[in-house]
Amino acid sequence: MIVMKFGGASLADAETIKNTVSIIESRMNRQPVVVVSAFGKTTDLLTSILESVSAKEPESARKTAEEIGNYHLNIIGDLIVGESLRTRAQEIISDNVSRLRRLIDGMEYLEEVSPRTRDSVLATGEMLSAPLFSLILNSRDIDVCFVDPCEIIRTDTDHGRANPCMDAISVNCRDKIIPELTSGKIPVTGGFLGSTPDGAFTTLGRGGSDLTASLVARGISADLIEFWKDVDGILTADPGIVPDAEPVSHISFQEAGELAFLGAKVLHPSSIQPAVEKGIPVRVLNFHKPSSPGTLISDELTGTDPHEQAVSSVACKRNQLMVNVYSTRMLGARGFLRTVFEVFDRLALSVDHIATSEVNVTVTLAPTHRVKELETELSEVAKVRVEDGVGVVSVVGRNLPHTPGVAGPIFNALSDVNIKLVTYGGSGVNLSIVVADDEVEKAVKSLHTALICKSRGEDA
Ligand code: ASP
Questions:
Q1: Residue ranges of the Aspartokinase ACT domain (predicted)?
Q2: Which atom belonging to ligand 1 lies closest to the Cα atom of 41?
Q3: Residue 460's pLDDT band (boundaries 50, 70, 90)?
């Protein structure tokens, strides 16, 4: 059993959808379960409906709802053959557009866009794409069944970024997906959506269909998840900075998790967590090049095989904040770090990297509108300096602290770069440096040349 997840870009028009269908056809003997996102940029259009209503422009919201309907009618026009399938598809589209109109009327009347209503609106993308895509497969004589994601993905009531209830989801997968697979059907479901115990729509956060795929894979104990994207896999660096970046052929779960956290944009940071828990391997593949191997993410790599490359990728994040907290009260004292971190906790700010000295603690974090509050609160216990516009460049690999000779090439490559902070050794898979934003490109390029191109045997 495998789970195949397709994002909006692979379902944007008749041509990309035909390509996606043929990718699924090539995997029929592997008992696939298909998870789809909303077609094309539908979720962006739904977001703009919410913005229009909030800006008291309901007519513009209604126009966008019509646009969504026409876009879907256009897509099925080319792809669904047979009178009854076509009628069913038209009904699905008109029901969803009517529902959208009623939601717009309701929001306009109440002058309110509540988180719960927001989720109801955003749900429309996958409420359309999953049943329509099932009909498209049907009309190719593929034996599919549409599985309503709301009947599978049970969540809490945290609208907009709901938390999945793992046990309920496993039971639902066992009861509603496994029997379909056993009877030889291909279950097709929508990503991103869930429902609360009392039946309200929830969503898992933008890009949440990846998480749905992992939850389903966990629920059915799949052998593999395939994420079909518009890139070749997880790359050795951001191709915007390093044009000859290549896909990494195989990395560990831990590296993939850190890479997502450290700035690589391929996978939603927490999206593969349910798969990691069950040790289910993940492959990131390119729907433009279905025969390319992509990147395999699995637990099999240990870092102890001398043939495995120690460094797999160079990631970066720009526009971060660095907060330096200095106090002589730290000298030999205890409890000071707790006082400092309580401030971050109170302001609900998540710290990324930390370095300490005898009288100083420096952290990095994502930009926040609460920076003034942070500065004020920290100033009550210490001297504070906040620097914005810094970048974090990270070398990610396996078992770095146990691989002799890694640090030399890293720091040689950075000989021209002004390093503000270094963190290393915590997870064993990354060494991160903080530099000024305008030095990020130079640092990434030099590290990529020294660590990745050299080990590929290319001239530096
Ligand atoms: N359709 C949703 C979005 O665009 C979820 C997803 O595609 O993963 O964010």
A1: 393-451
A2: 4
A3: very low
**Cα 271 to ligand 1 centroid, rounded to whole Å:** 12
Phi-psi region of 60 (alpha: psi -120 to 50; beta: other; left: phi over 0): alpha
Ligand 1: nearest atom to the Cα of 204: 5
Spatial separation of the C-alpha atoms in residues 116 and 130, rounded to whole Å: 21
Ligand 1 atom showing the smallest separation from residue 207 Cα: 8
Domain range enclosing 411: 313-453
**205 C-alpha to center of ligand 1: Å?**
8
Q: Which atom of ligand 1 is nearest to the CA of 209?
A: 8
Average pLDDT in the chain: 92
The C-alpha atoms of residue 163 and residue 10 are separated, in whole angstroms, by 26
Task: Of 209, 254, 221, give the one whose Cα is nearest residue 35.
Answer: 209
**Tokens 């699924």 map to which residue?**
24
7 assigned to a ligand binding site = yes
Q: What is the CATH number of the domain that holds 171?
A: 3.40.1160.10
Residue 253 lies in a domain: no
Is 43 annotated to bind ligand?
yes
pLDDT tens by residue, 272-298? 889 888 999 999 999 999 999 999 999
Closest CA to 295 of 320, 267, 321, 335: 267
Q: Is 8 annotated as a binding residue?
A: yes
Q: What is the rounded average pLDDT of the residues 135-144?
A: 95
- Whether residue 6 is annotated as binding a ligand: the answer is yes
Annotated binding residue 266? yes
Co-location of 42 and 186 in the same domain: yes
- Give the E-state strand segments of 248-402 in sequence order: 250-252, 282-286, 295-298, 311-326, 351-356, 360-365, 383-397
Domain assignment of residue 392, yes or no: yes
> Which one, of 211, 221, 233, lies nearest residue 279 by Cα?
221
Q: Which one of 39, 43, 203 would you pick to mutate in the ligand 1 pocket, going by the greatest count of ligand atoms within 8 A of its CB?
A: 43
More confident residue, 20 or 81: 20
CATH number of the domain to which 345 belongs: 3.30.2130.10
pLDDT in tens, 318-356: 999 999 999 877 667 778 888 899 999 999 999 999 998
Residues 17 and 153 both lie in one domain: yes
Answer yes or no: are the C-beta atoms of 283 and 296 closer than 8 Å: yes
